[in-house]
Amino acid sequence: MQFHEILLHFSEKDKIHKGKYKNKDNVVVAKNKDGQEIILFRPTPPYLVKKEMNDILFWTNETLKDKKMHPLLVAANFIFEFLAIHPFDDGNGRLSRSLTNLLLLQSGYSYVPYVSLEEIIEEKQSEYYMSLRQTQKLHKTEGEDISVWAIFLLDVLIEQTNRAKNLLNKNQPENIMSPKQLKVWHLFKNTETLSVKEISEKLENKIPLVTIKQALSRLVSLKLIERIGLGRSTRYKKV
After folding, report:
1. What is the rounded CA–CA span in Å between residue 62 and residue 131?
2. Is 141 exposed, middle or buried (0-12, 13-18, 19+ CB in 10 A)?
3. What domains are there in the chain, each with its CATH number?
4. What is the DSSP string of the chain?
5. Could you tell me the pTM of the whole model?
6. Alpha-carbon distance 90 to 83, whole Å?
7. Taking a C-beta distance cutoff of 8 angstroms, is the pair 19, 10 a contact?
8. Cβ of 23: how many Cβ atoms within 10 Å?
9. In 10 A of CB 78, how many CB atoms?
10. How far apart are CA 181 and CA 218, in angstroms?
11. 3-state SS, one letter per residue, for 13-27
């Protein structure tokens, strides 16, 4: 609920309900050619929202902890259930994309903030709704199967990954780095090797050591620098 309030914090039209679970049904409908409304999907009723949200949050956290299921499949299932519950009056779709990014970041997919998931899903909007509706038809039945939705989401994540790779292949790694990572990266413009302590000194101790170490790990993962040595003698140099 806090995440929902943060997302809609500056939206005046959502002032009344932001950060609160819905208190009325929000049935998903569409109009046919005669103007009649057809129910496409009936989400969880308000009185069951808190319980079902607690259930899926508990399942997600526990499943990620025991590591028996790939985190991308855990994320796909969580987002499907979240959208099936449709816990808020508005902003469910936007929040689901933010939650997808959060789950990916928590699972180590650090490129996520630099390529817009929202933009890719917007480009594939018809496929997005089709995969959701097809999967929601069998929700909470013996034949429930989220594979159509999972495949769609995985395809979107592959596209997101490819766009991140394209940025790197164009020799523009700065497009997928944070400002602090960039400051560390700019110290490697020559061939000298640097230790964490030396980097901190060059940055006039303005960036915490733990942040410098995180930035170095990021640069190593991007294959922009390499690690030399171990422990206290570890140094880094430009690839």
Report:
1. 26
2. exposed
3. 2-169 (1.10.3290.10), 177-238 (1.10.10.10)
4. -HHHHHHTTT-GGGTTTTTS--SS---EEEE-TTS-EEEEE----HHHHHHHHHHHHHHHHHHHHHT-S-HHHHHHHHHHHHHHH--SSS-HHHHHHHHHHHHHHHTT-TTGGGS-HHHHHHHTHHHHHHHHHHHHTTTTSTT---HHHHHHHHHHHHHHHHHHHHHHHTT-GGGGS-HHHHHHHGGGSSS--B-HHHHHHHTTT-S-HHHHHHHHHHHHHTTSEEEESSGGG-EEEE-
5. 0.71
6. 11
7. no
8. 10
9. 21
10. 8
11. HHCCCCCCCCCCCCC
- Which residue is it, tokens 């302590």? 197
Kindly state the tokens that stand for 46.
């308000």
C-alpha separations of 100 from 83, 105, 118, 128, 229 in Å: 12, 9, 10, 14, 36
Q: What is the pLDDT along the chain (239 residues), one digit of tens a residue?
A: 777 887 777 777 777 777 889 999 888 776 667 777 777 788 999 999 999 999 999 999 999 999 999 999 999 999 999 999 999 998 899 899 999 999 999 998 888 887 889 989 999 988 998 999 999 988 989 999 999 999 999 999 999 998 888 877 766 667 777 888 889 998 987 778 999 999 999 999 889 998 999 899 888 877 788 999 888 889 999 88
Q: Could you give the CA distance from residue 61 to residue 103 in angstroms, rounded to a whole number?
A: 10
Can you tell me which residue has the tokens 């523009």?
A: 172
Structure tokens at 224: 């922009």
CB atoms within 10 A of CB 155: 14
Tell the residue number behind the tokens 């630099």, with chain if given.
114
Nearest to 6, CA basis, from 110, 77, 109, 102: 102
